[in-house]
Amino acid sequence: MHMNILSCTAAELGEAIREGRTDAMEAMRAVLEQIDKTEEEYHCYVTLDREGALERAARVQRRIEAGELTGPLAGVPMAVKDNLCTAGMRTTCASRMLENFVPSYTAEALLNLERAGAVLIGKTNMDEFAMGSTTETSYFGVTRNPENTEHVPGGSSGGSAAAVAGKECFFALGSDTGGSIRQPASYCGVVGMKPTYGTVSRYGLIAYGSSLDQIGPLTKDVRDCAVVLEAMASHDEKDSTSVKREDMDFTAGLLEDVEGMRIGIPRDYFGEGISDEVKCAVLGAAECLREQGALVEEFDLSLTEYAIPAYYTIAAAEASSNLERFDGVKYGYRAPGEEGLHAMYKRTRSEGFGPEVKRRIMLGSFVLSSGYYDAYYLKALRVKNLIKQAFDKAFSRFDVILGPVAPATAPRLGESLGDPLKMYLGDIYTIAVNLAGLPAISLPCGRDGRGLPIGLQLIGDCFQEKTLLRAAYTWEQRAKSTSGRAVSRPGGLAE
Amino acid sequence: MRGNMGKEYETVIGLEVHVELATRTKIFCGCSTAFGGAPNTHTCPVCAGMPGALPVLNRRVVEYAMAVGLALNCDIVRDCKFDRKNYFYPDNPQNYQISQLYLPICRDGFVEIETAGGSRRVGIHEIHMEEDAGKLIHDEWEDCSLVDYNRSGVPLIEIVSRPDLRSAEEVMAYLEQLRLTIQYLGASDCKLQEGSMRADVNLSVRETGASEFGTRTEMKNLNSFRSVRRAIENERERQIDLLEAGEEVVQETRRWDDERECSYPMRSKEDARDYRYFPDPDLPPVYISQGWLEEIRDRQPELPWEKRKRYGEEYGIPDNDIEIITGSRRLAELFEGASALCGQPKKVSNWLMVETQRLLKEQGMEPEDIRFSPEHLAGLVKLAEKGEINSTVAKEVFQAMFDRDVDPESYVEEQGLRTVNDEGALKKTVEEVIAANPRSVEDYRNGKEKAMGFLVGQTMKAMKGKADPGSVNRLLKELLQHWKMD
Amino acid sequence: MEKTITDETIEYVSILAKLTLSGEEREQVKRDMGRMLSYIDKLGELDTSGVEPMSHVFPTVNVFREDVVTNGDDSKNMLKNAPGEKDNMFMAPRTFE
Lengths: 495, 486, 97
Fold this sequence. Notes:
The complex is a heterotrimer of chains A (495), B (486) and C (97).
Chain A: H1 10-18, H2 24-42, E1 45-48, H3 50-65, E2 77-81, H4 108-115, E3 119-124, H5 158-165, E4 171-176, H6 182-188, E5 191-194, E6 214-219, H7 222-232, E7 262-266, H8 276-291, E8 295-299, H9 304-322, H10 341-352, H11 355-368, H12 373-397, E9 400-404, H13 420-425, H14 431-435, E10 440-447, E11 453-460, H15 465-481
Parallel strand pairs in A: 2-3, 2-4, 7-8, 7-9
Antiparallel strand pairs in A: 1-3, 4-6, 5-6, 5-10, 9-11, 10-11
Helix pairs in contact in A: 2-3, 5-6, 9-11, 9-12
Chain B: E1 9-20, E2 57-58, H1 59-71, E3 75-76, E4 79-80, E5 83-86, E6 96-99, E7 106-115, E8 118-131, E9 135-139, E10 144-148, E11 155-161, H2 168-185, E12 197-207, E13 217-220, H3 225-244, E14 253-257, E15 262-265, E16 278-279, E17 286-287, H4 290-299, H5 304-314, H6 319-326, H7 329-342, H8 345-353, H9 355-363, H10 374-385, H11 391-404, H12 408-415, H13 423-436, H14 438-445, H15 450-462, H16 469-482
Parallel strand pairs in B: 13-14
Antiparallel strand pairs in B: 1-11, 1-12, 3-7, 4-17, 5-6, 5-16, 7-8, 8-11, 9-10, 12-13, 14-15
Helix pairs in contact in B: 2-3, 5-6, 7-8, 7-10, 8-9, 10-11, 13-15, 13-16, 14-15, 15-16
Chain C: H1 7-17, H2 23-40, E1 64-65, H3 75-79, E2 85-86, E3 89-93
Antiparallel strand pairs in C: 2-3
C-alpha cells in the first residue's frame, strides 16, 4: 500500500483505481477499517453492510478490469442517507415506523451512481423522516460531529456529513428540504450541495416535503461535489417533477475564475442573530473573491423573515399528507393487539413516530383543515411566490448570492431540541432556497474560536450550478493556497 | 308524492357517477388494469403506496376525460390540476386519493334525457379525474379485512350532476344516456354490476313549490340500475316519514343494503369528513391547448343521438329498430358494418332485432358481448338472399355464428346445408311423399288446407331441410292436381 | 400574543392525523402548535392580494406517460414487508360491520 487511501478525495481515489494504484476492494477495506475505529463514537450509520459492501466492491473491480466501468467514481465507496430506498437493504428514515422496512426498489439517484460504479457501504443516520436540524431526532440514537464529538453534526443529513468528515466514506448522499444537506455540511466542515429542484430524481426518496425535497451530494471538496452531481443527476420519467436539462456537465464548472462574476451579499443575512465569527468568516470569503476579480456588492434581498413561517407551513402540510401512508397495513410498524381499525391506526402512528414528526404532522394537518386552508396554506403559497420573485429580481443583478449557511456553528448535543421554534429559526438562511427551487452550495470557510467549522453558502439562479461551482472552486483553491494565513478582515457591512 | 298529512312532496336528486376508464394501464403507473388477476399481482410501488414511489399521469386518461366532457357539452378547463384528498382507509394505500377539487377537467355541461314526460336537460356540474381504490375482502376465519390493490389506481372519472333530477325514472334515463354515450366514446364499458360504472345518489325532499332545497343524504353502494331505483324510492319515503313525524333529516352518507332493501348511516366519530385537499406537489398541472382540444374533438365518434337522426334519414328502418340498434354501440357497429357489406339494411336490422335479441335474452348476455362480426352477418344475409339456404337453415347458421362466430359460407359448405335446387331430385321426393301419405292427399282434396302443411313438412324432412320451401309448395300443388288415386 | 390551542382542536386534529396524544405529549404539542401558529401569523403582515399561490416552482405542464403496460408482478417482494399477510393480500383490522 503506497498511498493513504483515506486521505484521498473521491475523484483522487477513482483515478488511483483506474490507474491500478489501488482497487475497489482495497478502498472498501480501508473505509471499513476506519469505520471499525470510529463508528462506535460517531455513529454515522444506521445500517452497515460490511459483507455486502465487499462483495459489491469485488464485482465492481471485475467490471473495471473488464473495461466496462471507466468513470471517475468507479470503485469509490459511498454512504447513502437512510431516506433513499435501497432494494434488499432496509431503509428506515431513522424511524421506529420503518425499522424493518426492506424496499424492492432503489432510488433513481443511487441507481445512477451504481451504474457509474460507486459502491454502497451502508445507510446513514438522520433526523427522523428528515425532520430536524441536529440528527438528534433519530430513533437509532444521535450522531456525533467528528470535528468535536460534544457537538451535533447538524441535520437532517447529519450521518452523511459526519461520515464524510470522519472519513467513513468518500462521499455521501443527503436530501435537502430546508437546508438538510448544506447545514450539516457546514457544521462538519465538508462540501454539500442542493441542486436546482428537479435536477436529481426524487424517485425512491421517501418524501418529507415533496415540493421542496432535493437529493444532493456531501463531499470532501468542490471537485467531488461536481463529479458526484454529474453522475447522479438525470431526467427520470418516473418523477414528474424531474427536469430535462442539457447542461448537466457540472464538472465543466470547475474553473478558478470569478473575473467579472457579480456577487450579491444580502444585508438581511447579516442582521440580528448571526454570530460575529460566522459573519467575519463569510465576509472574508467574499473579500477573497473580490480580490479574484468578482464584483461584490451588498443588497437587500427582502422577505427573509417570512421564509421560515412560509416554509414550515408548506413543509408540514406536505409532510402530514406524505406520512399518511405509514399506517401499519402495508409495511412498517404495527401496534400489536389493537382490534379496531382506527384504534390500530392511531396507536401504530403514535408509537411509530417520534415527537418531532408528530408535531409537524399535527401542524400540517391543522393548516390544511377546513377553515384554515386559505389563511395558512394558501397564504404560505402566495408568500412563496413573492419570495421567488425577490430572488428573480436579485438574479437580474447578480450571478451568485453569498451568505452564511447558519447563524452559528454546531451546537452542543442536547442543546437544541427543547425549543423547536428556536431550532426552526436556525434554518433562516437555507430555507428560502428550497421555496424558490434554487441551487445552493455550502463549503467550509474557516473555524470559530472552538475550532468548529464555519460554512459559506453560495446561492445561484435556477440551473446555474456551474456558476456556483466556479465560485466555490475558486474560493476553495484560494483558501487552500492561503491556509495558515489569517483570513483578511471584511471590507463592507460594518454596521 | 303525497304524505299522510296531505302535503305534496318533490324529490330532488343529484348524481355522482364514477366511471372506470378503458385504459390499458392505471392512471399513475404502468400496471395493467385487466380484471381477474390473482390478488396484488397488478401492483407496483406506486399503486401500492410504497414510500418513495411517485405518480406519472397516463395521457389517455386526460384524453378520455376530455372526450366525455365534450360529448356531455362541458367546458374543458384548460389548466387543470390534481389535488390530494386525505382520508385513512385500508383500500386507499397512500391514505390520500389523487383527485381533482379546485380545477377539475370539465365544467358546466348537460345531458338530454327522454322520459314519459318528454325531453329534459340535466345539468352537469363537473367531471374530474381520480384514482380508484383497492378491494377489501372480509375474512371470516381471521375476522379481519384483506386488501387487494389490483384495482388501486385504475383511472376513474367522476361525473357530478346538478340537482336537476326529480324521480327514479329520470335517474334511470340519465344513467342510461351516460352509459350509452360513454360506451360510444369507447371510454368505458360502463357495467354497473362489474363496478365499472357506479352511482352515488344525493337526495332530498321538499314540499312542492318550496324554493329551498331540503337537507340531503348521500347514498352509496348501489350496484345495479335496480338498486339505484329501489334506493331512491326507499330514501324518499324515509325522508318524508321523518318530516311528517316532525323530525329532521340528518345530512349524512348512507350505505344501501341490497339484500335487506334498506340503508343505514356510515358515520363514525373517526370520520371527520375533512379531506384537507391541497394541490398534489408530485404532479405538474395539465394544460390543454386549443390544438389538443381540436384533435380530440375531431376524433369524437358519431354519438347515439346523431346516429338516430341519420339512421332515420338513411336506412328506412322502423323507429323501434333504430332505438334498439343505436341503444348499443356494438349493435350499431354490426348494423352499419353488415349493411354496408350486403346492401340490405332491413334484413340486417331484422337479424339484430329478432334472432339476436332472442339469443341475448336466452343466454343472459349484453349486446356488447356479441362475438360475431359484421362480415359474417353480411355473409349470412347474402346466402339467404341468393336462396342458397332457406330460412330454417339460416337460423341454424346464425345460432352457430352467435355461439362461435363461424364464417357462414364455410359453415354451410362443411355441414352440407346448401339448398338443393335440383328440380328432378325434388320432384322425385315429392312424388314419394305423396305416395306414402294417401290419407293426407285425400284430406287435401277434400279441402283441408292443413294437410298441405304436413306434406311440405314431410318433404323438407326427407330433403334434410335443404330444399327451398317455396319450390316444395309449388311442386306439391302441381303434382296433387294431376295425381290419380290408385 | 400567543395563540391558545384548545383541547377540542387537538382532539379534532388528532382524528385527522390519526395520532393519539396524551398527558405530557399533548400539552407539549398544544404549546408548540400555539407558538408556531402565532409565528406563522407573521405572514399576515404581507399584502398578498393579487399574488397567485405557487404550488410548483417551475411552470412545467403535461408530464405524461403513454398507456403501455410496463410493470410485472412484484407482489411477493412487497408483501414481505406486510405486518400481516394472507392469500397474497395485506391483512388489516376488520372494516365491515
